[in-house]
């Protein structure tokens, strides 16, 4: 069997998938995101809080890595890392990022793009102290960032691959929501 045939034959999603009712979505995408995150955690899948974080360098070249969500509040979606990391260098040059969550057991994906802000020293050191490797010494090289979403896209997979996609865009007057057809390109944020 060729690699192409092997890849085509791989199983995709579980037999039972949730259905996304686009007529009953909340006005605030954070509410839907937190519901989906809770449901992903409830599946028992390891690393349900994992996300792919993509930043761009000064030339516009993207770089991605997998990180863990630290918190979600009115400041945005938070993650942490060393200030001497590649992502910190990128964020100092271009404070924007895209976060991608994929929850296979539910056939769900959420893509979030937004502006990134470093949070205060107290938040960063509290996160550092909560790490399993904390040895009693604070780390001035540790930083917690928050992504304030401008655009969120929620995707609920379907077995026929006509996935249900909903986009939320932040506007001055509030959130705008629309369904995206499977073949449609998302709106630029």
Which characteristics define this entry?
single chain; 189 residues; alpha+beta; Pnp Oxidase, Chain A; nine-stranded antiparallel β-sheet; 4 helices; 20% helix; globular
3D architecture notes:
With 189 residues, the chain is of the alpha+beta class. The chain has a single domain, classed as Pnp Oxidase, Chain A (Roll). 20% of the residues lie in helices and 39% in strands. It has helices spanning 3-9, 29-42, 86-93, 121-129, and strands at 50-56, 62-68, 71-73, 76-82, 96-103, 108-118, 142-156, 164-171, 174-180. Strands 1, 2, 3, 4, 5, 6, 7, 8 and 9 form a nine-stranded antiparallel β-sheet that branches. The longest helix is centred in the N-terminal third of the chain and has 14 residues, at 29-42. It is globular and about 50 Å long. The termini are far apart. The model has no long low-confidence stretch (mean pLDDT 94).
**Count of discrete structural domains:** 1
User: Which whole number gives the mean pLDDT?
Assistant: 94
Instruction: Characterize the largest beta sheet: strand count, sense, and whether it forms a barrel.
Output: 9 strands, antiparallel
Low-confidence stretches: none
Global shape:
globular
Assigned CATH class: Mainly Beta
- Quickly count the helices: 4
In whole angstroms, the N-to-C terminal distance is 42 Å
As a percent range, the share of helical residues equals: 10-25%
What's this entry about, in short?
With 189 residues, the chain is α+β, with helices and mostly antiparallel strands. The chain has helices at residues 3-9, 29-42, 86-93, 121-129, and strands spanning 50-56, 62-68, 71-73, 76-82, 96-103, 108-118, 142-156, 164-171, 174-180.
């Amino acid at each position: 069997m060729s690699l192409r045939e092997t890849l085509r034959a791989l199983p995709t999603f579980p037999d039972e998938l949730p259905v996304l009712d686009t007529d009953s979505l909340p006005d605030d995408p954070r509410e839907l995101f937190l519901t989906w995150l809770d449901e992903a955690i409830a599946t028992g899948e390891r690393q349900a809080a994992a996300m792919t974080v993509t930043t761009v360098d000064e030339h516009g070249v993207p770089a991605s890595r997998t990180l863990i969500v630290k918190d979600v509040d009115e400041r945005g979606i938070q993650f942490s890392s060393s200030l001497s990391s590649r992502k910190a260098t990128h964020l100092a040059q271009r404070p924007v990022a895209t976060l991608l969550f994929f929850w296979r057991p539910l056939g769900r994906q959420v893509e979030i793009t937004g502006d990134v802000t470093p949070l205060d020293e107290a938040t960063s050191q509290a996160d550092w102290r909560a790490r399993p490797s904390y040895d009693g010494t604070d780390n001035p090289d540790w930083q917690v960032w928050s992504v304030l979403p401008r655009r969120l896209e929620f995707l609920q997979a379907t077995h026929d691959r006509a996935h249900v996609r909903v986009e939320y865009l932040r506007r001055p007057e509030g959130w705008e929501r629309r369904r995206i057809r499977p073949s449609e390109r998302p709106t630029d944020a």
